[in-house]
Amino acid sequence: MLISSSKLLKNAKQNHYAFPHFNFWDSNSIRAEIMAAEELKLPVILAWAQKHSPEIGIEDALALGKYYGNKANVPVVLHLDHGVDVDTVEYGVTHGFTSVMIDASDKDFNENVRETKIIGSYAHERGIVVEAEIGHVGTNSTKDGSMYTEVAAAQEFARLTNVDSLAVSIGTSHGVYKQGTPKLSFSRLAELEKAVPIPLVLHGGSSSGDENLARAAKQGITKVNIYTDLANAALNATQKNSFLSEPDMAFAQRKAVKDLAEHYYKVFGTVNYQYTI
Ligand SMILES: [Zn+2]
What is the DSSP string of 127-150? Predict the structure, then answer.
């Protein structure tokens, strides 16, 4: 069954745990992620990121998400991750995503507010929830660093946009880290948690360290986005064995992705809370 993330994230906020958000990039990965959720009998947030369009387009992602999501015996949120233009996100709203993110975080505050408000009213009229981002969760290239989210700006942004959840930057980055585990600012997270009434989201969860992520989930983060670690788990499973058949290799990839997905449900404390819809 496909559901909204609204109640999940509010529940996580109230009870101090987080939901994992898993990106999928093909049918193998989405099946593995659903298997993990079914094994643990927990809801799952499955996401297609617009930047993955070269690997899997929005139509294919919607087809896979709706097919496997409706077939799953746990609730599934189908989320559009990092929508970068209004047209694509609006298309996602009307074609089956139950949650969307508009990411105008690389633009200035007013433009970020403006684009988020456009998506906010369009999506809310249709019963779809919206995530936006303030501050900037960069990638680990030399040019594109992260900028911590300012508390007052986040508070003002949430008030002006009426957005449902907010991605904040407290020291994580997308991709893998060049130099070990990142240092997260838990004091900034505490200030944000106090000042912003809506659920907070952490991007760039991969390789951020289980201890960091567990603490972030306890201290106000309600969703942690994971992509790179899952893709690398599938790759490592492929590289460390010499398979005699493609189906055997695909099976090993699914198992690696499923095991890691289950691990993150444990790290974020999702397993401690039996969620009923
Ligand atoms: Zn992200």
Answer: T-EEEEEESB--BSSSS---BPPP
